[in-house]
Sequence to fold (66 residues):
Amino acid sequence: MATQGTAAKSASGAAMSKYDVEVEARLKKLEAQAHEKCGGGSKVSDDLAAKIEELYDWYLSVKARV
Fold:
């Protein structure tokens, strides 16, 4: 006699145990916290941009002499 299982399903459709469901919920919560702190990160500070520009100008001057 077969009984209907009550296991949760993953995104791929695989059955998950109660423990797996709990672990996945904790992982999603931790990932959300980690991503909240990321504030873009793609903006270069003015000081760093000036140093990069100075280094690039130096590179161009050296390259012109070679």
